[in-house]
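Re: weekly structure request thread

Next one in the queue (225 aa):
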Amino acid sequence: MSVTNAERRAHRAATREARSGAGPTVAGVEPGANPGATAKFGLFGEVLTIGLMMAVVALGVVTLPIAVAAGIRHLRRFVAAEDSRAQLFWDDVRAGILPSLAVGVPAALLAAVLTIDVVLAGSGALPGGEAIAVVGWAGLLALAVTVLLAAGEWSPSRGWVAAVRAVPGVVRADVAGAAYIAAAAIFTGVVTWALAPLFIAGIGCAALAVVAVPARRRRGENRAG
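Done, posted below.
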């Protein structure tokens, strides 16, 4: 009897491991996706680690797009239980940092203009200040979402032009997903405003959101099929 119970416990444990995607295949059990995401504490630690690395790269401000893109690619490798050495992150940064300036410089200038508008609107120096402030905040949010989505589409082989051009299609294909990315961008802004060092956690979470949102859509499509 004890042997039977032990066998059942072993089979249940093997089934859990197989479904998580981290263990060996068990007959009749479909392996789970994203095995690297099954260890929740490990994933949280990786988000903080990659957030710190992204923050270092983003110190140049105009280098924020490549920092986010390289971080997203790193987290995709991690959750897929692929090779996720830190060296691969720096390889992506080196491969894309110069081309990314074509995105980073205009984005930084536009963000500066919108921020100035918001500040001036709040000071009462501009007529219709409340409306201008709303437009400014909306513009900053749209810019942040665009940068995040473009970074999610970037790869060294694809390049930044194709990544930016893909953003409208990504939004049309998953409007709810774009709203989730906007929420991640707002979260990053709020925690950074509250305490600047929290930018590390915020940007890491935003990168993870870009990885997780399309996976959510694919799971829904698989269930519908």
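Residues 86-123 form the longest helix (38 residues). The two ends are 42 Å apart (CA to CA).
Next request, please.
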